[in-house]
Each structure stands twice: as structure tokens, then as C-alpha cells.
């Protein structure tokens, strides 16, 4: 135990003596506080709420539009209301020229009362001008039809699109409200595993290359060395993520009104979900950190780490993408299975808690499996660590290392 404390204390000092580590942590936390506090002092237009932001996104008041309407199908009065900066041209060639030289944002050639061709210089993900033109021509057709039937367009519109009042009573989880912060947390835990796992592997590989690891493993147990390194990395990562996430969450909560609640889907995280995220995220990180620790002992140069850890990286990437793709189906078979496997429960279980239906018993069983797996992986990795640190030359694969450990038994 004393040796473990010595190793843990030494590794923690190395982290907190690192200027890069401290500067990155506090700089990101300060940027989070400053960035999320801006709307309190500067009007950025967020106080209109989510609906107001949506209006701004689909507003075309500032869009310069050129139109070629050979047969006069377009109602110019209505068109000028939809496109305040509309300009009519005499040919499609003029449209192409205006769009190409950037004097117009979008061009339209009206082919019939119900069809048009759109011109754009670079394709866009969201063609808001096309949507407005489609609505404009649809309204025109509706007005003509209403006139032919002797009714007003308002009467026709209200009969075709009556106002429906509805109220939703959510008895379980609000999936739409919880989806985006769950998405963000999956990305965060993935980054933690990759970033800090590689840091541990690099630290071990560096010690092996300069032969200082030989002094460590001969003067203390490998369990103390590896557990000290991994847990020190866990403490450092928790400190860094707590500082950054805490700054984001608490600063946003203090400025929610100024933001018009528009970031609620990402930063308004319930304490229950955040607690499960921290618990499973921590032990999921430890599970992979022990593996990365053994990987560092299996190579003689830090350049070989990526090659030896490629299989682990593949597993992490598969879990990462499947977890993201299955967020819309949290109670499906994939997420249910993933929530019990130690290499995936760190992201799948808190996603099920946030988005799906899961009983406390399931959470407890999953955590026990994860905890037992972390202990087992730690002990196995310590043996691989001891065996690997005494071997130099070409990197050893994890599979070969496990076989060598079994033979030693």
C-alpha cells in the first residue's frame, strides 16, 4: 500500500507540475465562462429563444435573388414580400452571370405556375431560398383556386389547415430534450478514453525506453506501479473535465435567460444522468486505461504505440459509433447488450438512463460487471506490464502477451 501511495503521489505531481496540463485546463475553463457570459453583456440576439433563432435561420431578408420569369407566372407583389431584395432579369444566362460573380446569392428561372429551376454557385446543406420560393408558388396556386371557388384564401387555408391544439403528457423520458446532451457526453467520454489512455501508454513506453522502469519493477510490485499510474491519470482527467464541464454547466445556468434557453438541450443536464455518466465514465476509463498501460509496456518506442493499440482503438471506435447511431433507439437490443459489456457500458448505460427505460437493478448489475472487469483487467495488465517491461526489441501484440502470461502460470 505504501508503494502504491508513493507511485500515485509521484504521478500526480507530474501531472500537476505540467504547465501544458494546467494552462490547457484553466484556459478552457476561462474561455467557457467568458463565452457563455457574453449574452449577459452583449445582445447577440439569443434572448428571442429557440423560436426566434429559427426565424433568423430561415429569414431571407438579406438574400439577393435574381429571377427570370418569361411568362409572368410569379405574382410580383407577393414575391417582393417574400424576397425584399428580388431583381428580375431577361434570361437564364443573366442568372448564371449574377450568381457566378456573386452579385446574387440565388437565382430562379420560373418554368410554370408550379415549377422552377434554382441556380446556386456552391451547393448548400439547407436551401432556405428554395423553400421560400416553393411556399410562395404554393400560396399563389391556393389564391387562384380560392378565387375560382368564390372564397377568400384565408377561408381556404383555415379549412385545409385547421388549428389543432394538443398537449403531450410525458410519463417516462423526454427523448427529444435529452438527446443532444447525451450525444455530447458520449463524445466527451470517448475523447477522455483516447486522450488519457494514450498519455498513460506514452508515459510507460518512455520509462521503458530510458530503463527507469527496471528500477521501478524491481523495487516495488507491478500492481502498485500500474495501479498508481492509472489511478493518477484518472484523478487528473476527472480534475480537468470537472473544471471544464463545471465551468460550462454552471456558467450557462447562471445565464440561461440571456441565452433564451437555446442551449438547454446540451447543457441543462439532470443530476441523475450526470451522476451515472461520472460513475460509469470513470470506471470505463479505468478499464481502458489499464489496457493502455500494458500496451505501453509492450513496445520499446513510443512510435509503436499506435500499431500495438490498433485493435483496442478499433473496439473503442465501433462502440463509439454504434452508441451514437443507437441513441434514437435506447431500448433496442444493441443498447441493451452494450449496457452490460464492460468495454461499452461506460457510454451505453448512461444513454439508456437518459433516453430509455432502465430499472435500478439493471444499473446495479451493469456496474458490478464493470467494476469486476476493471479489477480483473487491472490485475491482468499488471502481469503483462511486468512481463513486457523486461522485453526489448520489436513490439509485442496484446494477444501474444496474454499467451505468455498464461504460460508463466
In short:
With 409 residues, this protein is mainly α. The protein has 19 helices and four strands. Helix 18 (360-389) crosses helix 19.
Structure in words:
By secondary structure, the chain is mostly helical. The protein contains 19 helices and 4 strands. Strands 2-1-3-4 form a 4-stranded mixed beta sheet, sandwiched between helices. Mean pLDDT is 80; it is low at 48-58.
Structural class: mainly alpha
Overall body shape: elongated
Give the helix tally. 19
Helix content: 55-70%
* Mean of residue pLDDT values: 80
Strand content: 5-15%
User: Which strands sit side by side, in order, in the main sheet?
Assistant: 2-1-3-4
* Cα gyration radius (Å): 30 Å
- Pattern of helices and strands: HHHEHEHEEHHHHHHHHHHHHHH
Low-confidence stretches: 48-58
Largest sheet: 4 strands, mixed
End-to-end distance: 25 Å
Q: Which helices and strands, and how do they pair?
A:
Elements (H helix, E strand, L loop, with lengths): L1 H16 L1 H23 L7 H9 L6 E5 L7 H7 L2 E4 L3 H9 L5 E7 L2 E5 L8 H21 L4 H8 L14 H35 L2 H8 L2 H33 L1 H4 L4 H4 L3 H27 L7 H4 L1 H16 L7 H6 L6 H11 L4 H30 L8 H11 L1
Parallel strand pairs: 1-2, 1-3
Antiparallel strand pairs: 3-4
Helix pairs in contact: 1-10, 2-10, 6-7, 8-10, 8-13, 8-15, 8-17, 10-13, 10-18, 13-17, 13-18, 18-19
